[in-house]
Amino acid sequence: EADIYQTPRYLVIGTGKKITLECSQTMGHDKMYWYQQDPGMELHLIHYSYGVNSTEKGDLSSESTVSRIRTEHFPLTLESARPSHTSQYLCASSESMRGTSSKWTGELFFGEGSRLTVL
Amino acid sequence: KNQVEQSPQSLIILEGKNCTLQCNYTVSPFSNLRWYKQDTGRGPVSLTIMTFSENTKSNGRYTATLDADTKQSSLHITASQLSDSASYICVVSDRGSTLGRLYFGRGTQLTVWP
């Protein structure tokens, strides 16, 4: 069972508010990701990190920002939420490939998700 | 263009019946293919991971197949249970980088009725 946690699970806020979605993992994984998912649609990568002090933007443009100060923690922040930010946000992590291990699969472990609704 | 297409979009079956979900991909170069199960309001959970050399892999009542030549995969569910109701997502990874970029399908929404 994956040890990756997201809070809050559900959040309803008004337009213009600043929000932070928390994500923590206890597996010691170097790689962490944030995905956005709307009903019936595929997951879209919005941010990822290869390790501490490393953050990159994903395929889908997002007004959110992330930070990676500690290996286990990868929070996502929206400075001023808008209704267009309403979505499901999924955090994930994966281990890095060590040497030439044939057993490395790069499997993603997902958190339970944070459902954000902006009114 | 690298894409992952899943069919059917949705499926309703009766408890105890079998079903097969399809995944076609155009991702190249290919690294591996994964099937995830996502319960409503939850995060996806891995069912199987298949590499280029693997044709079949089972995980309990779930059996995945891979045909790397035709770029097709299927997920067969045997003796379905109510708890199988979920979205099943096919994810393909390329070998373009150490990250192995992931391409997600939109999922097949399976509903199992009693």
Give your account of this protein's structure.
- The complex is a heterodimer of chains A (119) and B (114).
- With 119 residues, chain A is mainly β.
- Chain A has no helices and 11 strands.
- Chain B has 114 residues and is an all-beta fold.
- Chain B is built from no helices and 11 strands.
- In chain B, a hairpin with a 6-residue loop joins strand 4 and strand 5.
- Chain B is globular and about 40 Å long.
- In chain B, 32% of the residues are buried.
- The chains are: A mainly beta (119), B mainly beta (114).
- Chains A and B meet through strand 5 and strand 10 of A and strand 4, strand 5 and strand 9 of B.
Percent strand of chain A: over 45%
Rounded to the nearest angstrom, the distance between the terminal CA atoms of chain B is 41 Å
Strand content of chain B: over 45%
Contiguous helical run count of chain A = 0
Average pLDDT taken over every residue of chain A: 90
Shape of chain B: globular
* H/I helix tally of chain B: 0
Helix content of chain A: under 10%
Note poorly predicted spans of chain A. Answer: none
Topology of chain A as a string of helices (H) and strands (E): EEEEEEEEEEE
Task: List the helices and strands of chain B in order.
Answer: EEEEEEEEEEE
Q: What is Rg of chain B?
A: 14 Å
**Backbone structural class of chain A:** mainly beta
Structural class of chain B: mainly beta
Features:
A: 119 residues; mainly beta; 7-stranded mixed β-sheet; 4-stranded antiparallel β-sheet; globular; B: 114 residues; 6-stranded mixed β-sheet
Q: What's the arrangement of secondary structure elements?
A:
The complex is a heterodimer of chains A (119) and B (114).
Chain A: E1 4-7, E2 10-13, E3 19-25, E4 31-37, E5 44-51, E6 54-57, E7 65-66, E8 76-78, E9 87-94, E10 109-110, E11 114-118
Parallel strand pairs in A: 2-11
Antiparallel strand pairs in A: 1-3, 3-8, 4-5, 4-9, 5-6, 7-8, 9-10, 9-11
Chain B: E1 4-7, E2 10-14, E3 19-25, E4 30-38, E5 45-51, E6 56-59, E7 62-67, E8 72-77, E9 86-94, E10 102-104, E11 108-113
Parallel strand pairs in B: 2-11
Antiparallel strand pairs in B: 1-3, 3-8, 4-5, 4-9, 6-7, 7-8, 9-10, 9-11
